[in-house]
Amino acid sequence: MVTMTSSGTAQAQSPTHQAGTQELDPGNLTELRRDAERSSQALADATKALEQRQATLTKADKELKVKLEQLRTATVELSKVRRPLADLVQSLYQEPSGGDMAPFLSGQDDASSLRALSDMTYLVSGRDKVLADAGRLYQEQQKLAADAQELRATKLLVEAQLSAEIDTLRKRSATVVKSLSQALTKLGVRVNQGGRTGAACDPTRVSAAAQYPNGLLPKTVLCPLQQRGRELRADAAISFVALNEAYRKQFGRPMCVTDSYRSLGAQQSIFYRRPGFAAVPGRSNHGLGLAVDLCGGVDVFRSVQFNWLEANGKKFGWIHPDWAYHSPFEPWHWEYDPKLGSLL
């Protein structure tokens, strides 16, 4: 695990530091978030494996069709091989007197007998060839049929196994997210506030928030905070709630928040009202749901509250960015670092 200095430099955290983070997080939100993210990643990996396997199975299907066509062709070939001999035998049976074989059968030694003998020789050799070809083609038929059956069985088995695994992982992921939502609710977060569903506080869906432009995030991807009217992206919100509980434990009251997610319109308004103290509209971390402005003492540089947050915020993924120390100087501005948060 790592932490960050005020300049944003990564530093390794000791086991004691990790234990301290757990003690600071009475709602166990950080562990629940990690569990949810791990479950989501396992589900994503299994789904990818299924997609790859399905591609393999598609190839197997093609192989199966080829083998079935080969089987059909082999059957036709066997029928063709048998036909000349069958025709000859049939013609002999159709001649009551033995047809061309009669002279030979009667013992006459002339040209007719020689032809009859030739026909008999052809008949015998043809029979042997047909039997040999029939045996070979029959074995080929059997092998093709076995291969086709094995491909069918393998396909059904693999699909069933992967589907069962994905179903199990999906249920586990849903269970973990539900537990996280329940933990947030117990801490006073109204996860269904404003008509949104609990999915807005699902940390595994932050990629959905990343699809929207800065300042244009819909309610469906913004998780409410304990502070009424304030909201952030799911991962930032969960980490902030955990940080807020640690702050409450230390100071006996929750953190004071003056601003959180900021729409594009709000960014434009503040930019023109407070030139030099707000990012260019569309470039603020507030517009990504990853920043808060704090009050209640934190906004006073080197106050007890500021120093505590500077020392402990990193344990939850929250930092006071380097620029906010001097250009412009904004002790009240704090940001969630997703990369740092993912390492907690």
From TrEMBL:
Instruction: Cite the residue spans of the region called Disordered.
Output: 1-25
Question: Which key words are in the record?
Answer: Coiled coil
Renumbered to this chain, the Polar residues biased-composition regions fall at 1-21
Q: Which Pfam families match?
A: VanY
Q: Which residues form a coiled coil?
A: 29-63
Q: Taking every annotated instance into account, which residue ranges of this chain make up the domain D-alanyl-D-alanine carboxypeptidase-like core?
A: 231-338
Q: List the PANTHER family.
A: D-ALANYL-D-ALANINE CARBOXYPEPTIDASE, PEPTIDOGLYCAN L-ALANYL-D-GLUTAMATE ENDOPEPTIDASE CWLK
The name this protein goes by in its record:
D-alanyl-D-alanine carboxypeptidase-like core domain-containing protein
The organism named in the record is: Sphaerisporangium flaviroseum
